[in-house]
Write a structure and sequence with these properties.
Length: about 290
């Protein structure tokens, strides 16, 4: 039971507070404190994890594997996947470079896209196979799922009703971004054409009007991009927070009790304006407000 005591003190008295609680040191060894940013990723720890000398957190594994491709598969001891990973990514990149040198830009672009998809799939595979026997829900896994696939963290947390909200928000913001970007480029080109002294502009939209709409659509385009980032970040935070709160329960067995109370503090010194001499051990009458759960 947590009790909150409200007391009425007479004769305009005021309490004298102790200074000790405000002078407490909660870390006996300040030199042992480390910066949180510095401890987020350690290359030595990551290399040790790949050598299976120590265990890695899922975030550390994913961050290191984002640079050292295939690190997830090495840590998960799925070495047979490495030829597939390197062959797919390396082959797609190599084919794209060859096609680009030959002038086939369209085919080269698709090869580069394929390499990106293979890289993304490698990261997702590593997260899926990370410590399969870990207790459910795993907050790190939920977070990485949402980072890699928007809405997948909510599916992992079994909060399926949130998926249409976040995915729909990203799709809608992307649609508006594309539309505003197209209109921005349209009015930008009109403005450049209308203000070009080397050509005779005969379009129906004057330069000042084109400038106005160019700035409007550029601003809306930027707002849409911010909306995409905001919804994406929100669903990542949501997946992380609600995976932590998965086992948090609020029962209906709550009780509130209010009653009179006599407070007898062990040692309180009080000084009255009429009697400057401190006294101790005095009692106070008040109310006791208690919550039980």
């Amino acid at each position: 039971m947590a009790a909150f005591l409200v007391s009425a003190v007479f004769n305009d008295a005021h309490a004298q507070f102790r200074e000790q609680p405000f002078q407490q040191q909660y870390n006996d060894n300040p030199s042992a404190q480390t910066d949180t940013v510095e401890s987020m990723f350690s290359l030595k720890e990551y290399i040790g994890g790949l050598q299976h000398k120590n265990t890695l957190k899922i975030g550390t594994m994913a961050a290191g594997s984002a640079v050292l491709v295939g690190g997830c598969q090495i840590y998960n001891e799925q070495y047979w996947k490495l030829p597939i990973v390197y062959g797919t990514i390396g082959g797609s990149l190599g084919a794209g470079l060859v096609l680009k040198n030959k002038g086939n830009d369209k085919a080269a672009t698709w090869c580069f896209v394929g390499a990106g998809v293979a890289y993304w799939a490698t990261m997702l595979d590593g997260v899926i196979n990370f410590e399969k026997d870990a207790a459910y829900p795993h907050p790190g896994r939920a977070t990485m799922y949402s980072l890699l696939v928007p809405g997948l963290g909510q599916i992992y947390n079994k909060e399926y009703w949130k998926v249409p909200i976040y995915v729909g928000g990203i799709v809608a913001a992307t649609h508006y971004y594309t539309d505003f970007k197209r209109n921005f480029e349209r009015f930008r080109n009109i403005y450049l054409e209308a203000t070009n002294p080397d050509i005779q502009y005969t379009g129906p939209i004057p330069a000042d009007q084109a400038l106005y709409y160019r700035d409007v659509y550029r601003r809306y385009r930027d707002y849409s991009l911010l909306a995409i980032a905001a919804v994406y970040l929100l669903q990542v935070i949501d997946a992380n927070v609600f995976s932590y709160m998965h086992d948090f329960e609020v029962t209906d067995d709550l009780a509130l009790s209010i009653g009179p109370s006599v407070i007898n503090p062990p040692s309180i010194q009080m000084a009255s304006s009429n009697n400057p001499t401190p006294f101790s051990g005095g009692s106070a009458v008040g109310l006791s407000l208690g919550f039980s759960f």
